[in-house]
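Title: Request for sanity check on Beta-lactamase prediction

Description:
We are preparing a figure and want to confirm that the structure record we downloaded matches what your pipeline produces today. Could someone re-run it with the sequence below and paste the raw structure tokens into this thread? We only need the token string, no images.
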Amino acid sequence: MKIEQIYTGCMAHAAYYIENNGEAAIFDPLREVQSYIDKATKDNAKIKYIFETHFHADFVSGHLDLSKKTGAQIVYGPTAKPNFETIIAEDNQEFKIGNYTIKAIHTPGHTLESTTYLLIDENGQQHGIITGDTLFIGDVGRPDLAQKLVTDLTQEKLAGMLYDSLRNKIMPLSDDLIVYPNHGAGSACGKNMSKETTDTLGNQKKVNYALRADMTKEEFIAELLDGLSAPPAYFPQNVLMNIQGYDSLETIMTKANTALEPDSFEALANQSEALILDVRHENDFVKEHVPNSVFIGLHGNFAPWVGALIMDVKHPILLITPEGKEEEAITRLARVGFDNCLGYLKGGLTAWKAAGFETESIVSISPEQFATEKDQTKHPVVDSRKPSEYKAEHVENAINIPLDFVNAQLSEVPKKEEFYLHCAGGYRSVIMASILKARGYHNMINVEKGISGIRNAGVPLTQFVCPSTLK
């Protein structure tokens, strides 16, 4: 069976392309859709269906633009109620792509409309399942997203539905089936996802904690909800965009791809109260940047961090980008629903300084300098990594303020004395430093290369010890 996984690493997202006998289907497309059209054109195929496994929360799907461009019909699972024309599949309804058969299996739990698609080849052999966020490699979908839209739909209720879906709909299927999930490691849609992006169902039954044969529903719910952090603020906003509709990507690009001279850039920033978002490399931002700008580099997990840290997808944004990266930045913002980009600084920092505007910098030191001076200065150390990373190893007495929660934990940031700030490799700490500077904190010292550099510089690291294990 011909199926291609189209994996976008910065989003930890997998779309799927299936083609047979001149017909094609796309599953869970990203917002920029031309690459899917190009694949079908290369195969002399017509895109017949756009299958959605559920209303996505972590990105804006390209279903509407793709449908308008190709005439393909959009398919959702049972109970879905979008504000546009679509096919609402019945449980076990079958669709044809050439000689292939796609069978919709309703698997509620991650969301009410979540649907798994069973792939059957031209010989009637079951090949695999496109599971969306119902089943990942090593994990299952979080059950706390739909409650943001339906208040009486608790995460406990959804977790119970997911247990039933997995036991009654997924686990009875053949062990030979290949599992094709919507996400891999790094996605906020689960908590324990593998770096692998496919596996057999049989192996998942052996290694995935959520598929243990002897697991009760109560045990499943408890384990699934244990350690589940709050979802990013943009998730429910993206769900609504996927349900209600949105402007075409071409419209967004036309508005946002506007080069602004420094004077116009500054005037528009003041007039619109736009966030100035600098997407260059962290090393460039540390050396010099526009005052009050926030750094989130394109080379890292750009879109998820934008979504996690900018609370409103409608907030106006002005960009500072490396030359030639303007369209990429606008597109990647649009992937997560940030459509209100007003333009970018023409000529970048060079033009900004030539126009007589000031720049600022961040104090940044090497891991070796940190190792030499930390015991002398006695400055506090702030670790911006996730709690799980912090527990694995950290600088002794370091304060853990995860970047995801810097806005909520601002009161824990040292105010009256200098402090060291680090992450895992140097990306997240500069994001946090930029946010803190924009809020009036100027007392941080960034440690380059993060914990990896600190470890290599010979700084002793300690592990978190649970109090219950202490004698």
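Thanks, this matches our download. DSSP finds 16 helices and 24 strands in the chain.
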